[in-house]
Amino acid sequence: MKAASVSETAPVPLIATDLKQWAYCRRIPYYRYVMPVAFAPTYPMRRGRNVEEAVAALERRRGLRRYGLDSGERRFGVWLRSEHLGLSGKLDLLIVTRRASFPVDFKDTRGGVRDNHRMQLAAYALLVEEAYRRPVRTGFIYASPTRELMAVPIGERERKAVVQAMAEIRAMIERGMIPEPTAVRARCVACEFRNFCGDIW
Length: 201
Ligand code: SF4
Prior knowledge:
Blueprint: H1 6-9, E1 14-15, H2 16-24, H3 27-33, H4 43-60, E2 73-82, E3 87-96, E4 101-107, H5 115-132, E5 138-143, E6 148-153, H6 156-175
Parallel strand pairs: 1-3, 4-5
Antiparallel strand pairs: 2-3, 3-4, 5-6
Helix pairs in contact: 2-5, 2-6, 5-6
Iron/sulfur cluster binds at residues 25, 27-28, 181-182, 187-188, 191, 193-194, 197, 200.
């Protein structure tokens, strides 16, 4: 029997942002992977990128005390990749101490940590643990409009949610069927894909 090649067995490569989008609206990964469409980045998207750069500049001048840490190494814009998970992503900030790692995601958001933020942060946690071989028990969301730093526990539940979501995204890609739209229709108003979701208007 012919042995399976790597390309036959390797999982469909995903990025950490896919996990966030899947939790936000399942159609967004569909538009990315199954029916790629040309879309214009919205103002919130462009602003989000600019804000990340501004926050990184600010964070470089700050200490670690507000993370509850006495010492640690800070790394900005860290590219992470796991062959095993078929997952990659660029993390805004990683703090590495002798005993643990702490992923930090900068968000242009108000109103606390949302499920999709938690999902993306947990995806980074899996990548960081594999790359740095230190446990991740806590990550942080930095909300740039309010300058609020929010600690997010990363436990088994969050890890399992990421693994399950990756399986669901890959199953969706395999089926090639457009998922149901998000039930939260307010999300559609500023969505960069709204022109392609004709069935919801
Ligand atoms: S317009 Fe609404 S349903 Fe369509 S991709 Fe965007 S958030 Fe999802």
